[in-house]
Design brief:
alpha/beta, Helicase, Ruva Protein, domain 3, 7-stranded parallel beta sheet, 13 helices, 14 strands, binds ligand FO1
Length: about 300
């Protein structure tokens, strides 16, 4: 039984790799919800959708988000009426946002809605949002604080990052099944995702932190930083913004209470001694997933640990 903590694009690769080796009944994916956003009256869950699309085989792989072979007629037409068009919602993608919003309006929780959508997409692995609550990742910049999507997509990640916060209730609760999935797993895998904005909102939930601490020896994290640079995306800026080191050692420091092991890239083998000084076992492997065969190889290696 494997439980995965996932963000979006980079995580989707490892989740796809794991799904190639593990029976759907034995794979649970707990997904970040900090990047969820309400746009055009629709509740959009980018990371949840990225994982669902990846498992369903319909993800636009070159982009790493959205539905493959999508069109953007709605957005093009909508912009003529003054609708904001900076967040590229494709026409096929739009259907999932409308369906989700309708189900939520009818009273279903985000977890229940995700289960329904997974069923329609013929995704048989368990995909759980980390929480049914809205926990919003806010980026503090010299211009004020803004939603993660506003920072990353609308402003193209250009403002300086002074800090990151998670806006929501004081004591956010995990979605149904999340704590049990972590507790009962033979192995918990933290994907090579942004520790601040992809895994951070999941770790922000107190009972998730608590159960991870308990099962720490079974938790393996994969570094999203190779050669002191993020594999992709703005992780470097966010790590610096919260005062962390942009290196596998910095990642080990963030995860040390939750993960017993950290996989680093072969090129970062020299960092292992410093990682182990923090009390985390460092393991070197080829962690860059350049194609599907590399995704499966890394997944197989993680399973074999
Ligand atoms: N990322 C972009 O860089 N530009 C976009 O216009 C964009 C649209 C989008 C629509 C649906 C979706 O599920 C994801 C989308 N993403 C887009 C990805 C997303 O902004 C982030 O990469 C994740 O939220 C962070 O994991």
């Amino acid at each position: 039984m494997i439980t995965v903590l996932a963000g979006g694009t980079g995580s989707a690769k490892l989740v796809r790799g794991l799904a190639a080796h593990v029976s759907p009944d034995d794979l649970t994916v707990i997904v970040n919800i900090g990047d969820n956003i309400l746009l055009h009256g629709l509740y959009i869950c980018p990371d949840v959708d990225t994982i669902l699309y990846a498992l369903a085989g319909v993800l636009d792989k070159p982009r790493g988000w959205g539905f493959k072979d999508d069109t953007f007629n709605f957005l093009e037409q909508g912009s003529k009426y003054g609708l904001e068009d900076w967040f590229k919602l494709g026409d096929k993608d739009l259907a999932i946002h409308i369906a989700r919003t309708e189900m939520m309006k009818a009273g279903l929780t985000l977890g229940e809605v995700t289960q329904q959508i997974a069923k329609h997409l013929k995704v048989y692995q368990k995909v759980l949002p980390a929480s049914d609550e809205h926990i919003e990742t806010r980026i503090l910049t010299p211009e004020g604080d803004m939603h993660l999507q506003e920072f990353w997509v609308k402003r193209k990640g250009t403002p300086n990052v002074l800090g990151v916060s998670y806006r929501g209730s004081e004591n956010p609760q995990p979605a149904s099944g999340v704590v049990k999935a972590i507790h009962d797993a033979d192995k918990v895998v933290i994907c090579p995702a942004n520790p601040v904005t992809s895994i951070g909102p999941i770790l922000h939930i107190p009972s998730i932190r608590e159960v991870l601490t308990k099962v720490r020896s079974r938790v393996v994290a994969v570094s999203p930083i190779v050669n002191n640079r993020p594999i992709s995306g703005p992780a470097g800026k966010f790590l610096r913004g919260i005062g962390a080191e942009v290196s596998p050692v910095g990642v080990a420091q963030i995860y040390s209470g939750f993960a017993g092991r950290l996989l680093v890239d072969e090129t970062d083998r020299a960092a292992i001694d410093s990682i182990e000084e923090i009390g985390v076992e460092g393991i070197a492997a080829n962690i860059l997933m350049r194609d599907e065969s590399a995704e499966r190889q890394l997944a197989q290696f993680i399973i074999s640990i």
